Amino acid sequence: MAIGARSTVLQRRLQIADRIRQGSFVRVEDLAEQIGVSTVTIRSDLAYLEEQGLIMRANGGARAVRQFHAVRRDQHAPLAASQRRDMISAIVPLVGSSMTVLLGSGILPALLPPYLPASSQLRLIITSLEALPAARQYSLGPVYLLGGQCHSGRAEIDGPTAVQALAAYDIDLFVMEIAGISTPDAALRTLFSQALHAEAIRAARRTIALLNPDGASEAEVPELPVFLHDIDYLITPENPGPAISRTLHQAGFSHNAEADQARLYRKHILDQKNHHDAISA
């Protein structure tokens, strides 16, 4: 692409992002008419802007990403080792010995394998190279590495192939890491593949989200096209504070248990889905 054409595309995308920021929601057809290009071009631009975390596509249009709340006294301080351990401990009672467990990307899911039931019937599916060494060392059952792309400098496995590969597994439990929760709409935010995590939530019988604000900063973190009511459990490193507590209550969650500092929240009414081991917590 010539420099002039590249500059035109950039200016158009910035114009689109600015128009979306000015309104709560803008339709593809309206943007095409306002900018003077085809709807195909608009959809392509929106896909790019969404990848950059600037907008969120939804229902034939797009909306601006919103501020999110994360459990953090010092926004840049990482979780202490004790907080991570407490959060992992809160998961263990929820994992049955004959489940198929999908581990999402992030440092917290990667810490889970040594704490899982020592059972040859437990199957692990790995979506990050970070979790692979511990999974191979501690798992007595089969370990599957999800097929897909692994980009330079990143441990995460993603891409269309990875999303399609999920269909090959009967997933009982998906353990994912999120960086924050938008208010008031309760959309989940993650630093990792949006498409893969959204599809995994839909595919799994149960989903546990671990709130880890380590990667969060004042910059926007991309928002998933899924919400609190789409998951079943949320584990926070500490008391989440009034804003998140209110959002949890409105989404049908209640404080279920504590593991020292960590807090486990459970959806009041779990979706009725068949799975190998009942989660009773």
Describe this structure in a few short sentences:
This protein has helices at residues 3-22, 28-35, 39-51, 81-91, 107-110, 132-138, 160-165, 194-203, 241-250, and strands at 26-27, 55-58, 61-64, 68-69, 100-103, 123-126, 143-145, 149-150, 157-158, 173-178, 180-182, 187-189, 206-211, 223-227, 233-236, 253-259, 262-267. It has 281 residues and is of the alpha/beta class.
Task: Explain this structure.
With 281 residues, this protein is of the alpha/beta class. The longest helix is centred in the N-terminal third of the chain and has 20 residues, at 3-22. It is 32% helix and 24% strand. The model is unreliable at 67-76 and 274-278 (pLDDT under 50). The strands form four sheets. The protein has an eight-stranded mixed beta sheet, with helices on both faces. The protein has a four-stranded antiparallel beta sheet with strand order 4-11-12-14, with helices on one face. It starts with a helix and ends in a 14-residue tail after the last strand. The protein contains nine helices and 17 strands. The protein has helices spanning 3-22, 28-35, 39-51, 81-91, 107-110, 132-138, 160-165, 194-203, 241-250; strands at residues 26-27, 55-58, 61-64, 68-69, 100-103, 123-126, 143-145, 149-150, 157-158, 173-178, 180-182, 187-189, 206-211, 223-227, 233-236, 253-259, 262-267. The protein folds into two domains: 3-64, Arc Repressor Mutant, subunit A (Orthogonal Bundle); 81-267, Rossmann fold.
List the defining traits of the structure above:
Arc Repressor Mutant, subunit A, alpha/beta, 2 domains, single chain, 32% helix, four-stranded antiparallel sheet, Rossmann fold, 281 residues, eight-stranded mixed sheet
